[in-house]
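Issue 218. Parser rejects a valid record. Input:
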Amino acid sequence: MHEHELDLYFPSIDVVATPISKVGNTALRSFLYAAETTQKNYTSDADRIQNFNSHLAPGTEIHNPASKIKEHLTRKGKHRDALSVVILRDPVDRFLSMYVDMFALAQIPVRLAPYLQHDWMVASTDDLTDVHEKVLRLLSWLEVDNHINDDFHWTPQVNSIVPNFTYDIALDINDLHSLPKRLAHSSQRLHWLENIEMPVRHQSNSTVQHLLGTEEIRARISSLYADDYTLRESLDLPTSVPPQVDTSTSQLDWPTIRTDLLGQQINNLTEVLAQQWRYLELSRAVRLARAIKRNQKWLQRLFPFR
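Output the parser choked on:
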């Protein structure tokens, strides 16, 4: 079952949330997991407030559905009587954030393999015009053969929404900080959340997003994700106003920005390789190989003539 076909249900706080990729998902999951654990483990509001932060799961543990929140995954629409939450993001902002993370910063290298043939990754020799062309090539690819549904990082947000369902709390990602107070005001059992701050997680490089958002690119994204804008209107969420960027200055700054991006790419890829190596060292095959090697050395000492 795909991630966008699932909701998250937390029984102790009786909250069901619709997670959407690139829409504050990690912060939302971490916050709800901590609220659920705190509500369940402590009886007094003072203890809950004091111990809340100690139950915030690191992003690496909460980002993957198969981690700490696995037990909270549920079929979409199953818990319709619970307090329901959904966070949405302006489609242009979300798409450019996805591009920066996946193809400029290589934040998700394991997911890049199927797309490397398309040459969407920012290269060391690219100027800003080259990157704009790569973004437009990605958009052209998404516009045909239903490719827009190939990866949940760019699947339309409307695809994750429960059909014909009215959410109790619908927020724009820029208002995510207000979620604790909104929950506190919506449920008496959660009034202690009034004093809790929303955790801040990774945020994409907004400067790079603004540089990539030319008028043509923004128009293409808006057209491709027209249903997401209709959804925002139905929930009375504001439409983001694109920032004004001085392109002449941006062009001058691009070499420095590009160098920083590529440095972050290297750091991210190096970290992933190091993590994979740690997993390999802990794997059963490696442990068996080491045991066999130790036994071979022991046999060689025991029977030196062999």
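Fixed in the parser; the record now loads. The mean pLDDT is 79.
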